[in-house]
Design brief:
heterodimer; A: 232 residues; alpha/beta; Rossmann fold; 6-stranded mixed beta sheet; 10 strands; 33% helix; globular; B: 227 residues; mainly alpha; 8 helices; 2 strands
């Protein structure tokens, strides 16, 4: 089953010229359970790709479909983690999670929030205001927020921001545990290749390379490709 | 419908909790209102015969300035911290977000008005019809927050939002300001003068509030989407 499909996907920001769109005519299919590692130099369109599938940005041409539905009407199927935490500093970790759980219509929001804080290893910090947590702890709460409604699709835009190795191992486990479909962008090629099951490379908004497998052995070739694209 | 109301309630709870702990909007608004009232008190020489004509304008200029500050913060804060993206990611009706923001803006402005009103009455030595004054304040605040929340959402996407919000808001607010100033004027008692008939102004305020709240609910989805 196709979980995500981009069909001639073009997207640009307000004021951006058509010739310089953030995404240009991207065609891509991601099957359910696959984990696509999306690579590319800065400004390649990786975060824009995530924003379109998260329903935060409209496609100017083409379509972004999540399980056959337009991304903007499939928000309940998607969990998003980015370098922004989307958390309120004044609220505790538990209050933040309960708040978002209620917005997503999760049954028993309090119990779900408590359970997820256990899963991300922060039960003792449940009642601590998020503003007082370290960046790594905040990112763990962000992961818990993304998993609140048990989404079949996870969009991870540089999720390793602020995480140490142990925390990222936990993130790897949470991401891979339930056979979710994942799109991941990261600047850390080694962890990306460990987590991904296939690779796509964007450059200047275009999908320039795809491979249907991913392994740490691909690192040298991909590094060379990225360096070449970065120089263009 | 139940889910919609539950979303509105959840969003209001969050906004009130964030404000109660951060005290960014209400505290700054109250201090600002008091300062403006004191400055006006020094600037104008109010006497009994001109109080009813001048004092309502002073009060509503103060409230409008406070409103612009408070409304501007409502979305700017969410946008600066990227929590607005977090809200837009959720499968919620955008009008729930609008109504929650309107409610919390009204609540924070009313708190400021509760602080400012006794100072206003005391500084300018006024005798007022309190129920009528409160009615004018509530209706005027709803009108200001209703339209202001919509424009604050639009302005939050721009770099010059502090300038853009009043530029968008004030022209549209003219009927509300006019009606509230007239209604507030009627609530100020002047010895020897009968209060003017203000039924039509209150009617205009109610109509404006209903019309613009309804329109804003419909338009908010377009206003909040950035790209």
């Amino acid at each position: 089953m196709t979980a995500l499909r981009a069909e001639g996907l073009t997207a640009r920001y307000p004021g951006q010229p058509t010739s310089n769109s953030a995404l240009i005519d991207v065609d891509l299919e991601v099957e359910a359970g696959e984990r696509l590692l999306l690579l590319g130099p800065n400004g390649a369109g990786k975060s824009t790709f995530i924003r379109v599938f998260a329903g935060l940005m409209r496609a100017s041409h083409g379509q972004a479909l999540v399980r056959g539905r337009p991304a903007r009407s499939a928000r309940n199927l998607v969990g998003v983690v980015s370098h922004a935490t989307y958390l309120y500093d004044e609220l505790t970790a538990l209050e933040n999670l309960r708040f978002y759980a209620e917005l997503y219509g999760v049954k028993s929001p309090y119990e779900r929030a408590v359970a997820l804080l256990e899963e991300v290893g922060l039960p003792r910090l449940a009642n601590e205001p998020v503003g007082r947590l370290s960046r790594g702890q905040q990112q763990r709460v962000t992961f818990a927020r993304a998993l609140l409604h048990d989404p079949p699709v996870l969009l991870l835009d540089e999720p390793d921001t602020g995480l140490d190795l142990a925390a990222f191992a936990l993130v790897e486990e949470l991401t891979t545990r339930h056979q979710r479909t994942v799109i991941l962008t990261t600047h850390n090629l080694a962890t990306g290749l460990r987590l991904g099951t296939r690779v796509g490379v964007l450059a200047r908004g275009r999908l320039v390379h795809q491979q249907t497998s991913a392994s740490p052995a691909d690192a040298p070739a991909l590094t060379e490709l990225l360096e070449r694209l970065g120089r263009i | 419908m139940t889910r919609f109301l539950s979303q509105v309630r959840t969003l209001i709870w969050k906004d009130l909790l964030v404000e109660a702990r951060g005290r960014e909007t209400v505290l700054a608004g109250a201090v600002f209102a008091l300062l403006v009232l004191v400055i006006f008190n020094f600037a104008f020489d109010l006497r009994v015969e001109n109080a009813a004509a001048v004092a309502p304008g002073i009060l509503w200029v103060t409230i409008t300035f406070v409103g612009v500050l408070s409304l501007g913060r409502a979305f700017a804060r969410e946008r600066d911290r990227r929590t607005l993206d977090g809200l837009l990611l959720a499968p919620i009706d955008r009008s729930a977000l609008y109504l929650a923001k309107v409610f919390t803006s009204i609540a924070s402005m009313l708190v400021v008005e509760v602080v400012a009103l006794p100072v206003f009455v005391g500084l300018f030595n006024l005798s007022v019809d309190l129920p009528l004054l409160v009615l004018a304040l509530v209706l005027g605040t709803i009108g200001l927050a209703g339209v202001g929340t919509l424009f604050a959402a639009i302005a939050a996407h721009t770099r010059a939002r502090e300038v853009l919000l009043p530029l968008l808001l004030f022209p549209i607010q003219v009927p509300v300001i006019l009606a509230t100033v007239k209604s507030t004027g009627a609530a100020i008692r002047v010895p020897g003068l009968d209060p003017p008939e203000i039924g039509q102004w209150l009617g205009l305020l109610v109509a404006f509030d209903a019309l613009f709240l309804g329109l804003s609910v419909l338009l908010f989805d377009y206003a909040i989407e950035e790209e």
